[in-house]
Amino acid sequence: MVLVTFVTHLEQILKAMIRNIISLFITGVLIVGCGSNDTTIDRKKREPIKDTISMGVDSLLPPSISSDVMDDFIENIASPVEMAALLKDLKVEFSTRYLAPTANADELTSVYQQAFYLGIYAADLGYLNMYNKTNSVMEYLTAIKSLADKVRVGQFFDFTTMKRLAQNNQNLDSLMYISVHSFNQMDRYLRDDKRSELSTLMIMGVWIESMYLITQVAGNLQKVDNTSETLKERIGEQKIILEKLLIILDNYRNLPNFGQLVEQVNLLKTEFDKVEIQVIPGEPVAVVIDGVLTIEQKDESVISIEKSTLNNIIQKTEIIRNKLTSI
Amino acid sequence: MKNFLKLIFLSTFLLSSEIFAQDNVELVAQCAAAAGNVTYLKDLVVKLDAGVPGGNPPSAKFSMVLSKNTQYRFSICTAPDSEGEAYLQLFDMNVLQGSTYFPNTGQDFPFFDFKCQKTGVYHIFISFKEGKAGEAVGILSFVKKL
């Protein structure tokens, strides 16, 4: 009797163990699956390319680009580095006037605001890093860390290392690398974590702030009758980026706050609709410059933008940026 | 016993996941550094299974905005334990702009520069030679304004 009871009990324990092992195995598979999603793009795996790659580069045929391309996420849609680099290249003097105040960071209560401001501060951090303004970098790092934690992406923001690099005023290239890489990881994680709307807000924040930065500079240059054709063209070509952003934003139109954002951005679109972009076709040329294989694109886009349109874009960007960053 | 088993299983799964992620972080950092004196912008981490025998190599696709009057650098780094060797191609719609691999000469380049003259969405494909399975990292870097 005792033996039967023992065997029955043992059987129950074994069954429970098996159940647990199975559930743990499933959990484990899910964890591994999630982990790999953070770091790989298996989900983007394509069907095999239709044409073989057997001849020269001239005859390399592209993997057929189908209409689903536009449904994919577009990388590098707003880069905090490139806009700042443009200004530095034009020898535009650094100014803290263009930066969003970090005092706002603690007052942001909704995740919508927090994600949007992450993008705003990312653009500002890129600007500061580009100009090596390490004194101001600290307050932006602190604000970003605080917001990143609230959005639950703080694990990707290596605050300690960045703080050390900024305080020692050394390895500024590393500071730039870690900053940009951290944002890429946050962005990727948000998308993998089914929080793409927050990733979109971050990107919108970067774009709006970058737009604000270059339009403010363009506006100030105009006041001293020194319109930069490069800046003008760079502002005009944002029409292309804006169109892509609006496609992405439209997916979230029904979410709280997104309607207002779409409405605001559409105000800018009405001005950008007046910008004309013409493409002159050409064949790319490969050359070796200083030992580096360099492809010179011979296609060229030509941007036509009236002065009145440029002024309207400058004004509207300022209004929209200030409205969206007001708490 | 149950707790012990749970611990073993969870540790194993979490550890393998963590090691995998860590490897990629290191590979991205190494690849970005190998690109030279340029500014890192994006990393494209790829893991692909082998293609079907006799078929064409699978590839990973990315869409990316590039800006006019900007020189970019596209780098490719194959993971040390990868079976296949990776290459990266840049397309503007259906027109090949650049590649790290030239099959007719067998030439490989760890990176190439692209002098962009037209702002727009470009497409990057990362594949493995002979359709082998593999892991790799592609890096987009900013070189300079033109």
Descriptive notes:
The complex is a heterodimer of chains A (327) and B (146). Chain A contains 11 helices and 5 strands. By secondary structure, chain A is mainly alpha-helical. A two-stranded antiparallel sheet of chain A has the order 2-5. In chain A, strands 3-4 form a two-stranded antiparallel sheet. In chain A, strand 3 (285-289) and strand 4 (292-296) form a beta hairpin. The relative contact order of chain A is 0.09. Residues 1-10 and 16-71 of chain A have low confidence and may be disordered. With 146 residues, chain B is α+β, with helices and mostly antiparallel strands. Chain B has one domain: Sandwich (Jelly Rolls), CATH 2.60.120. Chain B has one helix at residues 2-34, and strands at 39-48, 59-66, 70-78, 86-92, 95-99, 101-102, 107-108, 111-116, 120-128, 134-145. The chains are: A mainly alpha (327), B alpha+beta (146). Chains A and B meet through helix 1, strand 1, helix 2, helix 6 and helix 8 of A and helix 1, strand 1, strand 2, strand 4 and strand 5 of B.
